[in-house]
Design goal:
The chain is α/β, with parallel strands linked by helices. Helix content is 42%, strand content 17%.
């Protein structure tokens, strides 16, 4: 398969592209290499991918209407894994326009590319657990639950992406799969996320800030568990438009995360407690029975094991990039 991976220099895009290349596919990667976080990290991920003969890269912004067409006009993309987005809940309060630009305009441009290319058999794209908004999580969130109350602009743009996809599946028969990821973490991860910030601060002997830690629970999902299932999802196009939760289905508290990072770092954290931040939801919890039924999705990594893997990688990254 010739697979277009958008956001290929990003955390999940990098891991997904590596796996697809290892499985013998051709990967055409695109990324705008924006400076939301360390460009050095994005370039280092790309350098790994560029050592693979079946990897091609185009530096472009998917929100620019003609960029994809002029870069990929001659290519024979059969499948798309669309991961490029302005990520992060908190930053959407600071820079809302970049979310509309990348996550709504960019999503539309990917749909238009799929519509006009004539070769695309399946478009799988990243949505987010944030579409579920603020709600009790005594049991897992189901894909069929109503999702009409996004708690952040980030969530609103991810929900918009799902709506745009639904309309294009109906209008033009493009088979699509929306993937609601739940707090994905692991080596080569994101410097804006709590597990990275806690690791950095604890190793540097600085205090960490916990926002409403008694209320917060997250369904932390190890990146390899996601990457194991992505090729299966891509090769199985649905009739129309399908949506799946991809989470660990075993939520942990914020204190569990801190404990795991402390253990992996071999150091205790000094903590500062603050109230819940605007845009944050208290709990996430994925019901993954649909992904299990259709793709055998079975995440197996416990938080403490995944965090130990991340901290090992982080120490090496910092040794090489002080
Ligand atoms: N990591 C998580 O916990 C998580 C959870 C839910 C959903 N998601 C979604 O999964 C996808 C991947 O997330 P990630 O954690 O790898 O984030 P990331 O920020 O590491 O990767 C996104 C990549 O997209 C690129 N990008 C952004 N705007 C672009 C544009 N307009 N044109 C081209 N490239 C652009 C960025 O440069 C970046 O390399 C995103 O859609 C994100 O919203 C991630």
């Amino acid at each position: 398969m010739d697979i277009l991976v958008t956001g290929v220099a990003g955390f999940i895009g990098f891991h997904a592209a590596k796996r697809l290349l290892a499985n013998g596919h051709t990967v055409i990667g695109v990324d705008s290499l924006n400076d939301y976080y360390s460009l050095e990290l994005k370039q280092a991920r790309l350098a790994h991918l560029k050592s693979e003969p079946d990897f091609k890269f185009h530096h472009l912004d998917i929100s620019e209407k003609r960029a994809l067409k002029s870069a990929l006009g001659e290519s024979k993309v059969t499948h798309i894994l669309h991961l490029a987005a302005q990520a992060g809940v908190r930053y959407s309060l600071e820079n809302p326009h970049s979310y509309i630009q990348s996550n709504v305009m960019g999503h539309l441009n990917i749909l238009e590319f799929a519509r006009h290319s004539g070769n695309v058999q399946h478009l799988a794209y990243a949505s987010s657990s944030s579409v579920y908004g603020e709600r009790e999580a005594r049991t897992g969130f189901k894909e069929s639950d109503p999702v009409r109350e996004p708690a952040s602009l980030y969530a609103a743009t991810k929900l918009s992406g799902e709506m745009l996809s639904e309309s294009y599946a109906r209008l033009y028969g493009i088979p699509q799969t929306g993937l609601r990821f739940f707090t994905v973490y692991g080596p080569w991860g994101r410097p804006d996320m709590a597990y990275w910030i806690f690791t950095q601060k604890i190793l540097e002997g600085e205090p960490i800030t916990l926002y409403a830690p008694d209320l917060m629970r997250r369904d932390f999902t190890y990146v390899d568990d996601i990457v194991d299932v992505l090729p299966k999802i891509l090769t199985k196009a649905p009739m129309g438009h399908a949506i799946y939760n991809l989470g660990n289905s075993a939520p942990n508290t914020l204190y569990d995360l801190v404990n795991s990072v402390e253990t992996a770092c071999g150091q205790k954290a000094e903590t500062i407690i603050k109230p819940q931040q605007a845009g944050d939801v208290r709990s996430t919890f994925a019901d993954i029975s649909a992904a299990k039924r259709d793709f055998g999705f079975a995440p197996k990594t416990k938080l403490e094991d995944g965090i130990a893997q991340f901290v090992d990688w982080y120490r090496e990254w910092k040794r090489e990039n002080p």
